[in-house]
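Record now logged underneath.
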Amino acid sequence: MLNGITENNFALPMIDLAQLSEGENHAAFYHNLRTISRDSGFFYLRGHDFSPADFAQIFANSQAFFALTAQQKQQIAMVNSAQFRGYSQVAAEYTQQKPDHREQIDIGAELEALALQADNPAYYRLQGPNQWPAALPDFKQQVLAYVDKARALSIELLRHFLIALEQPADALDELISEQTPAHLFKLIHYPASQAEQRQGVGAHKDSGILTLLIQDQVGGLQVKTENG
């Protein structure tokens, strides 16, 4: 996590990338990363290049989008996108057969859609353009700048994981295409809910290789451990 919470007095461990540039024991850093990833699978991350201004900007973008009218948000509803990009309203998604009390916008790599052939794998259709809110002219540029920075950090962190596993840092580079990246970015809003709407989003595991998270000061994320 780039910013986070604690759960039931269990403080998430910390990984500090700055340790790699301070002449400290790199072997100890990678041992710590390997142990934490195995034991909790979740940690706070510091020593990255994101600034408080970066976080303030993306929160401002998020707040501006979710403050739009329902009609404005529905103009870029996910159902309009062959690439499954765009806006999903509250209760549009279910986790463990219960509706999620959240709304969100899904944003992927901004690419041209592929000209598909009949024998192409189904996942080829996932490449393509995003949907952007017409009411927020600066939203696209600012969000994509944040996503580019998050992608760079994700690749850096992936390479550190590989070193921690005693593999070459570039062992998965063939999966990281600069021409056709396949990351997914979400802005999520959890509206205030009543007692009967306790599930913001149910317990789940994310797809993909790794996830970077940042949340505001309201908190709410819970991390399930083997002992919890």
Q: What stands out?
A: The CA atoms of residues 101 and 204 lie 15 Å apart. Confidence is low (pLDDT under 50) at residues 3-9.
